[in-house]
Design brief:
heterodimer, A: mainly beta, Sulfite Oxidase, Chain A, domain 2, Immunoglobulin-like, 2 domains, five-stranded mixed beta sheet, five-stranded antiparallel beta sheet, disordered N terminus, B: alpha+beta, 6 strands
C-alpha cells in the first residue's frame, strides 16, 4: 500500500481498518471502528466512531437480533462533503441511480429550519378565484403522484486541480423518488385567473427563499412533494413539503414551501437577478434559465482510485432537464473516437440514467471521458466549446465533459479543462 | 354506498395514468395562454405522465379558504413596479450608520471588502455588485427585509430597510446623496445593469448556448 495515495480498485468506499483492542473472550475476533449516531451538545445527531466486535467466524456466534431501524454496515463510510452553504453527494460511492436520502446534496441560504408538521400550512393566493390554505393532511388527501427525477444545483461545476473527486466536481446533483400532489391539482382547486402568467414560490426558512416560476411549468409537471424514497422528506430537503420542478435548477424548487402567489409578472427576487443568472457572450446576462442541460460524469474510474490492467467496467450517470438521455458516448482514447455506452433501463425523463461501458485497459496512459446526448439532439459540449460559446469559464449552468487522465501506474486524475 | 363510490373515483383517478404528448392537449379548462413575459415554452416533444383527471369532482373540498389576515401576515413580496412596498422612507446618510452597525462585519466597511458578498461596485474588482449587476432596485429592499442581517433575519423595520437601501444605491453611484427612497422613488430608480439582461434563449436541440 502506497501511503501517499489511497489505492482502491473498486468503487467501494475506503474500508475501516481493523484495530487491535485487547479484550477478554474475543472468540478469536477483532474490533473495528464502526460509526454510531450520537447526539452532540446542540442536540444535532452526529456520527461517531465506536469500536465494534467482528467475530472471526460469524457462523459460530449468534448475530444481532431484528431491530426497529436499519443502519448502514459499520464498514461503510459514506459521507456528504459539507461547506458553509452546501453539502455534496458522494457520486463515486453510489451505485445505480437513486441517491440514499441521507446523502442527497444540500444547498440552503439560511440553514435548515425545524418545522412542526402539525402547524404547517401552504397558502395559495393572488390571481385566483378562491385563495386557499392547505395543511399537510389536506395535501396528502389529494390524488397523489409519484415520479423519479434528479435535482441539480445550477452552480454545479468545480475544476482547477487534478485531485478532484466526482463529489467535488459535480456532487450537487441527486436523485430520489418523490411523492406528492401535482401543482395543477391544487391550481384547479383555487381557480387560476386567465390573465395570470407567473407564480411566486416562497419558503419558510431564514432566507424566506423566493423564486418566480412561469405558470406553464405548473401545468407541465410541477408538484408539491411531501415524500422522498418512501418516507417523509428529509428536513434538509424541505420537510414537510417542497416544490418539485423536474429538470429545472435546484434553487427554483423551493423547500419548506409556505406560500404561492399567482401573478402576471415575475417578482425579480434576489435569487433570479443577482444570483442564478449567468454571463454569456457579448456582455449579456442570461436570466430565467431554468432548464438543466444534458450532462454526464464517469464515476468509476475516477480520482483517487487506481485501476489495474485488464477489464474495467467504466460506469457513470447522465441526465438532462429537457427529457430523456438517448445516448452516452465514451472515449477511451483522448477524444479521437467515441463509442456508445450501455444505458441502464428503464431510461426515465429528467432522471439520472446509469451507463456502463466495458473496456480492456492495456496499461498505456490515456484520457477517458463521457458525453451525454438527450432526446432534443443536444450533445454535452467540451469545456473549450462551452467556454467559447459563453465567453465564460464557469458559473451557473456550466455542464462540460469531465475528462479523467489515467497514468501508466493506473492512477486516475482529473484532466485539464482544455484537454478536448 | 357513497363511500364505495368515492373510493372508486379515488382508485380510478390515482391508479390510472394517461400518456399524452405536450401540454395543451391535456389541460382542461382554466390554464392561461402563454404570455410574452414568460420566456419558457414547454418543448412539444416532452411526454408527460400525469394522473387521469377523469371522474374528478369540480372541487375536492380539501383545505380552507385563506383569510385576508392570513394572507397579509405572509405576503411580503414586492414587484419591480413597486407593488407591495410599505410606507416609510430613508436617506443614505442614515443608512450609512446602520450599515456600519449591522452589515459591515460581513460586507466590509464600505461594502467592498467582504468577506461575504461584495455589494459596492469598484472599477478595479470583477465582483458582481448592486451597481454593476442588479437589474432592479426593488430587489434590494425585498431581499434585505426578507433575510438580512444574516444572524438576525427579518429584524429591521421598514424604515431601516429604506435607509440601508438608500445607502447602497448611493454607494454604488446610482442615486444622489440626498435622494429620498420611498415606495414611489424606489421603483423609479433605473439600475445600470438592467440593459445587460436577456431572457433564456435555449430551446433544446443540438445548438450549445
Amino acid at each position: 500500500m502506497n501511503k501517499d495515495k489511497k489505492i482502491l480498485d473498486t468503487q467501494f468506499p475506503d474500508h475501516i481498518p481493523a484495530v487491535k483492542i485487547s479484550r477478554r473472550r474475543m472468540l478469536g475476533g477483532a474490533a473495528a471502528l464502526g460509526l454510531a449516531l450520537v447526539p452532540d451538545a446542540f442536540g444535532k445527531v452526529i456520527q461517531e466512531a465506536k469500536p465494534i466486535f467482528v467475530p472471526k467466524d460469524p457462523t459460530k456466534v449468534p448475530g444481532v437480533p431484528p431491530g426497529p431501524l436499519g443502519t448502514r454496515s459499520p464498514f461503510e463510510k459514506l459521507k456528504k462533503l459539507p461547506s458553509f452553504t452546501s453539502s455534496r453527494t458522494p457520486l463515486q460511492n453510489l451505485f445505480g441511480t437513486i441517491t440514499p436520502s441521507d446523502l442527497h446534496f444540500e444547498r440552503n441560504h439560511g440553514g435548515v429550519p425545524t418545522m412542526d408538521p402539525k402547524r404547517y400550512e401552504l397558502v395559495i393566493h393572488g390571481m385566483v378565484n378562491k385563495p386557499m390554505s392547505f395543511t399537510l393532511r389536506d395535501l396528502m388527501r389529494f390524488p397523489s403522484f409519484t415520479r423519479i427525477c434528479f435535482i441539480e444545483c445550477s452552480g454545479n461545476f468545480r475544476s482547477g486541480k487534478a485531485e478532484l473527486t466526482p463529489q467535488e466536481i459535480c456532487g450537487l446533483t441527486s436523485q430520489s423518488e418523490w411523492t406528492g400532489v401535482m401543482l395543477s391539482t391544487l391550481f384547479r382547486e383555487v381557480g387560476v385567473k386567465p390573465q395570470a402568467s407567473w407564480f411566486l414560490a416562497e419558503g419558510n426558512d431564514a432566507a424566506v427563499m423566493t423564486r418566480s416560476i412561469p405558470l406553464e411549468k405548473a401545468y407541465e409537471d410541477a408538484m408539491i412533494v411531501y415524500a422522498q424514497n418512501g418516507e417523509a422528506l428529509r428536513p434538509e430537503q424541505g420537510y414537510p413539503a417542497r416544490l418539485l420542478l423536474p429538470g429545472w435548477e435546484g434553487n427554483t424548487q423551493i423547500k419548506w414551501i409556505r406560500r404561492i402567489e399567482i401573478a402576471n409578472q415575475p417578482f425579480m427576487t434576489r435569487e433570479e437577478t443577482s444570483k442564478y443568472t449567468e454571463k454569456i457572450a457579448d456582455g449579456k446576462i442570461r436570466q430565467f434559465s431554468f432548464l438543466m442541460d444534458a450532462r454526464s460524469i464517469i464515476t468509476f474510474p475516477s480520482y483517487p482510485l487506481r485501476i489495474e490492467k485488464g477489464w474495467v467496467e467504466i460506469r457513470g450517470i447522465a441526465w438532462s432537464g429537457w427529457g430523456k438521455i438517448i445516448q452516452v458516448e465514451i472515449s477511451v482514447d483522448e477524444g479521437k473516437t467515441w463509442q456508445a455506452a450501455i444505458l441502464q433501463e428503464p431510461v426515465l425523463s429528467k432522471a439520472h440514467t446509469a451507463f456502463h461501458y466495458l473496456w480492456r485497459w492495456n496499461g498505456r496512459g490515456t484520457i477517458v471521458m463521457s458525453r451525454a446526448i438527450d432526446e432534443t439532439g443536444y450533445v454535452q459540449p467540451s469545456y473549450r466549446m462551452l467556454s467559447s460559446v459563453r465567453e465564460s469559464r464557469g458559473g451557473y449552468h456550466f455542464n462540460p465533459i469531465t475528462a479523467w487522465e489515467i497514468k501508466t501506474d493506473g492512477t486516475v486524475w482529473l484532466a485539464d479543462n482544455d484537454v478536448l | 354506498m357513497l363511500e364505495n363510490m368515492e373510493a372508486e373515483v379515488e382508485v380510478r383517478s390515482v391508479l390510472i395514468y394517461i400518456l399524452f404528448i405536450g401540454l395543451l392537449t391535456a389541460c382542461q379548462g382554466n390554464h392561461p395562454k402563454e404570455q410574452a413575459s414568460s420566456s419558457y415554452a414547454i418543448p412539444a416533444e416532452n411526454i408527460v405522465v400525469r394522473p387521469d383527471e377523469n371522474g374528478w369532482p369540480a372541487s375536492f373540498d380539501f383545505g380552507s379558504r385563506a383569510t385576508k389576515a392570513q394572507i397579509e401576515r405572509l405576503d411580503i413580496s414586492i414587484t419591480p413596479d413597486g407593488k407591495g412596498l410599505p410606507d416609510g422612507m430613508g436617506y443614505a446618510k442614515d443608512g450609512a450608520l446602520l450599515f456600519q452597525k449591522k452589515c459591515a462585519s460581513c460586507h466590509g466597511e464600505t461594502g467592498r471588502e467582504g468577506p461575504f458578498d461584495v455589494l459596492v461596485a469598484d472599477s478595479a474588482s470583477r465582483a458582481a455588485t448592486i451597481g454593476n449587476y442588479w437589474p432592479y432596485a426593488t430587489t434590494i429592499f425585498d431581499y434585505i427585509r426578507r433575510t438580512m442581517p444574516y444572524n438576525e433575519p427579518g429584524s429591521l423595520t421598514n424604515e431601516e430597510v429604506y435607509q440601508v437601501t438608500a445607502f447602497l444605491l448611493y454607494a454604488n453611484g446610482v442615486i444622489n446623496r440626498d435622494d429620498e427612497i420611498n415606495r414611489q422613488t424606489l421603483p423609479a430608480v433605473e439600475m445600470p445593469a438592467k440593459k445587460h439582461f436577456v431572457a433564456d434563449d435555449r430551446r433544446g436541440g443540438p445548438e450549445v448556448r
